[in-house]
Amino acid sequence: xxxxxLFTRLVDxxxxxxxxxxxxxxxxxxxxxxxxxxxxxxxxxxASGLGCPTWPQCFPGSFVPVAHAEVPRIHQAVEFGNxxxxxxxxxxxxxxxxxxxxxxxxxxxxxxxxxxxxxTVLQAVIGGITVRTGLLWWTVAVHLVVxxxxxxxxxxxxxxxxxxxxxxPVRVVPAPLRALTALGAVSLAAVLVTGTLVTAAGPHAGDKxxxxxxxxxxxxxxxxxxxxxxxxxxxxxxxxxxGFGLAAVRAPRRVRLRxxxxxxxxxxxxxxxxxxxxxxxxxxxxxxxVALAAAITAGTAAVWAVGKTREPIExxxxxxxxxxxxx
Length: 327
Hints:
Blueprint: H1 3-13, H2 19-45, H3 73-102, H4 107-132, H5 137-161, E1 168-171, H6 175-201, H7 221-248, H8 253-278, H9 283-306, E2 308-311, H10 316-320
Antiparallel strand pairs: 1-2
Helix pairs in contact: 2-3, 2-5, 2-9, 3-4, 4-5, 5-6, 5-9, 6-7, 6-9, 7-8, 8-9
């Protein structure tokens, strides 16, 4: 029996999930992707990046931590705990694929579902490279950027799951404002990349070994902080401008509400960043900063997705061919 036939038979044995169950599973996918980004940050700020000095095993010959004179137990526990979160990410990704396949959802939804386990495998490989190269700064940067991309895709999955398969595409936001939303996504990407560079030049290398110090990005951190902060302010200004545009065209309330939440998150992130810099980048705030980065990424994806959605065929928006309304 082929793998495809075996998969089909397995899916057919499952009960068909309700729309609510599908949405819950998709929400868990988003949360698990955000959680592993935060636990990864905790690994870094506690200098536990080499708590498991090899990959895929934790120590040579063992997949779990073992007593080792050169690796403190706490570092082993933190790094191994982060690896265990990977199983949660995998479990939610597989659950999404099985549930949405069993529910016979449209191709678009299934593509997003399959991207979850596929990207998780990619992220695991990047994590292995990061460990085996001794936490080189650029591998850590790639690791975080990919995590944020996975949060973006997971958010789109959650939103698409909530749309009707037999609906019709509806433009909710006018094309110029949708283009501005796309520009916002590009701006966010620049903010995230420069944020990883700040981390690469900052005090949290992920390991404090004197014998094998972690290579750092040799750029003045103040310069990188100013660039990162300037891009964040530019992104915030772009969002505010988008808000005025949505108000002018009387976009639906759900669009303006999502944007309002996103603006609040970006403003809060700016405050956290300033406090971090002025206080020597305390470890706890790094985890908060990464959590907010994941939330902002999800929020930006949500604002993008709501610009063009699917409406039930019998809805007024679908009949008119546009979702722009005064609601």
